Amino acid sequence: MNLASLEEIHQAIWKKLEYAVRHRDSAWHLAALATVRSGNPELRTLVLRGALPEQNLLWMHTDLRSPKCQDLKMCSNASILFYDAEDRWQLRLNGTIQLDPKSEITETTWKKVSASAKRCYQGPFAPGTRSAEQSHNLPQKSVSEEVGRENFTRLLFFIDKMDWLFLQADGHLRAQWIQQDGELMASWVNP
Description:
Layout: H1 6-22, E1 30-37, E2 40-47, E3 50-52, E4 57-63, H2 67-74, E5 77-84, E6 89-100, H3 104-112, H4 115-118, E7 152-166, E8 173-180, E9 183-188
Antiparallel strand pairs: 1-2, 1-5, 3-4, 4-7, 5-6, 6-7, 7-8, 8-9
């Protein structure tokens, strides 16, 4: 891959993100999402579900009952980390998250979620709550596909800063893209 310009790298990053949305075998299909809870970082893995380069937007799905949603109501700042061991690319993103439980797009998305994936939102208990015994937190019996819709939301991650690192034996490369006043500022950064 030609890494000659910041523009080419930026385009390659977005192509890689868009590919990761559609291909579960992609290293960037799983994202590490960091939020803040009581002043401390909280980190977890989510599946990348959408990427819109023209809006600097990524999205994932989650259960509205999860503690991360409460974290985001208190502080919408978040970071996402991707790493591809084969390409040796790391991508760190900073931005803000908006919960999107009731939009038309979220409603359409819910209808496309597989029945087996919907079961994750149909559990009787909120994610992260204590259990007296080992639990999968799935419904005890078959339920309507609409059960759990009230727990489903998209997390819309609006990117403010993109930090790319290419690890290589003969010297790493690093670049950043920062949104400022509607402008995308690109620069090389010392690794």
